[in-house]
Specification:
The chain is an alpha/beta fold. About 20% of the residues lie in helices and about 25% in strands. It contains 6 helices and 15 strands. Strands 1-15-13-5-7-11-12-4-14 form a 9-stranded mixed beta sheet. It has a two-stranded antiparallel sheet with strand order 2-3. A two-stranded parallel ribbon has the order 6-10. β11, α6 and β12 form a beta-alpha-beta unit. The chain is globular.
Length: about 260
């Protein structure tokens, strides 16, 4: 690559030939946190505490303290987040190789199926049907599961919890193994509150996306939005987490570069 390549990229961004699409939900006290069984530890909800706002506490500046769990809102999962990835090298948010944080994205639209079944599971057959139309998933791509789940603006509807637990879409066991072993994806992204389905605890192994993805040194993105603005393939996502020492994940702002079709 020469400097001309970067010059061309900057020119295309400036001219609008490449659009920047924000895939991030706004982080606020209304952001729905992940809810685990009562006996498990719980993720702090997002909290913002004002330090000063052009007043006697600070006459010329406005700023806040904030607190939340690492896995709050649109967030990144590092391999160390799951027991299967705890002993891998470069498995924390401060040691993930930066070249892994920019990559091509394949967007599989499951929104029609999810609209009638919140417990929809993505399968190998569904992925292969997508490939017959759009081409084979290239190695080291991100696989983003579009469900339109992010359009649920009410936090309770977004969590979708009843007496059986949460009901949200995700991948089944076989498709995760297929995407890792046969397609070599670098990570899996979801519009729902987790990369695994809400009922993923009942699969074997439980929460297979977390177990296999992080056990093979790959990553997760949750609570994405605006996936309907991306083409099935041809976009690039940028997703660096906060560089937290020994971090298992972090909120982040996920951006997609999308060529504008003429």
């Amino acid at each position: 690559m020469t400097s001309d390549t970067l010059d061309s990229l900057v020119a295309d961004l400036t001219s609008g030939a490449i659009r920047i699409v924000d895939l991030t939900q706004t982080l606020s006290p209304e952001t729905a946190p992940i809810v685990l069984p009562p006996e498990a530890g719980q993720c702090w909800p997002f909290r913002l505490e004002q330090i000063s706002r052009y007043d006697e506490r600070g006459p010329a500046w406005y700023w806040n303290n904030f607190s939340c769990g690492e896995h709050t809102g649109t967030h990144f999962d590092a391999p160390i987040h799951w027991v299967s990835g705890r002993d891998l090298p470069n498995n924390t948010t401060d040691t993930v190789p930066p070249q892994h944080l920019i990559g091509p994205a394949c967007v599989i639209d499951c929104s029609g199926r999810v609209a009638t079944n919140p417990d929809f599971l993505l399968t190998v057959d569904y992925v292969m049907d997508w490939e017959r139309e759009h081409g084979r998933i290239l190695p080291r791509s991100w696989l983003l599961m579009r469900s339109d789940w992010s359009k649920r603006s009410d936090p309770c509807a977004y969590q979708n919890i009843d007496e059986e637990g949460p009901h949200t879409p995700g991948p089944d066991v076989e498709v995760i193994r297929f995407l890792i072993e046969e397609r070599d994806i670098i990570g899996f992204g979801s519009e729902a509150i987790g990369t695994d389905a809400g009922q993923g605890a009942h699969l074997r192994p439980p929460y297979p996306c977390h177990y296999y993805m992080h056990g093979s040194g790959r990553y997760g993105l949750q609570c994405l939005t605006n996936l309907e603005l991306l083409p099935p393939r041809g976009s690039v996502i940028i997703c660096p987490p906060l560089k937290i020492r020994n971090g298992s994940g972090s909120p982040l702002r996920v951006l997609a570069l999308v060529p504008r079709l003429t």
